[in-house]
Amino acid sequence: MISFLDTVFFTYDPPETKRDFLNLLPKLYKPEYDPCYNNFIVKEGDEIKGAVGLYYDELMAGGVKLRCGGIGNVAVAEDSRSKGYMIECMNMAMEDMKLSGADYGLLGGQRQRYGYFGFEPAGVSYSFNVNKSNIRHCFGKDAKSGLEVKEVKPGDSRTLALIDEILRKEPFYTIHPPEAMYDILCSWRRKPYAAFSEEEFKGFFTRNYEGRVADFKAASAGDIEKTVLAAFEFLQNDNNQFSVPAFDTAAIDRFTQFAEGWSLHHSKSYVVINFENTVRALLNVRAASGPINDGELSLYIRGWAGDEKITLRVKNGEAEVSTAKGEVDSELSHHEAIRFLFSLSSSHRRNMTNPAAQWFPLPLYSYDFDTA
After folding, report:
1. What is the span of the domain harbouring residue 16?
2. Rounded CA gap, 3 and 29, in Å?
3. 20 to 30 Å CA-CA from 57: which of 3, 30, 70, 268?
């Protein structure tokens, strides 16, 4: 199975950049994680000719448990293209998500290709560009972090637990199996590092294969600047990009004070299977992230997995989502609903005068190390 995927994806890699799935995503393709069990395949005789991986995660969002299906390694053998094998495997994966009670799914990939299966670019991620000049002017020419950066090793259970602990303090987080935490952080050929002041944990970052910051999280808002400075001291780069979820308002506020610039972009492509549960969870996260208008909004969604009528309500900052009864404010197709609720731009939302427009987009997000 793994050799088939390596052949499809990496046969033509130049020798100096040769990759394989075991090193690219150890959290999924190590034998102990049973990668074959998580794949839908098509065979011609004894040969695998197509495959789609489906990997489930459990998450907590605003006190609500969510089930997410991550799609990865969509592969068809070169001599078996245009036979519909990708469509077959994707349909099986989508049906499995529906039957298993998944609330939503995510992937990275070409928009229109996966749009046929209900996926739409969505979720909000802030990307901050920080350079050495910003560091010098904002932190001081001779500023030192005072932190010690240590590479996290597979057996460093204490540090791995500390990293998971600060992720769990967020209002939206993936439930990580402790035994897989190191492999999770090493996703996409990254190496994890932790920053300490003596023995006090201050945050972590990962370094990508180009030697730059990939993932980043400080232990507290007050530790952000020192952890950023520690990353620059350790990596010796002229600039780094720091990605921050929309619900981490403390980090956004800090970065906007010293970053050279920033941009907003979509987190991944998502398909929502259970709108009511997903919206309930993410509206709670939105309400916990900052002031939110009181209001009420009812939607009729012609969803990929079935029609849903839901009412979103906020009163005194408390959010509630329930099945709608009676008339609705808007009727939306599946893709329109994802854009309305979770995307950076929506024509339906832009033309809405209801105070509830201030709630959106809801802060759907996934760290790169949590994607398939």
Report:
1. 2-102
2. 11
3. 3
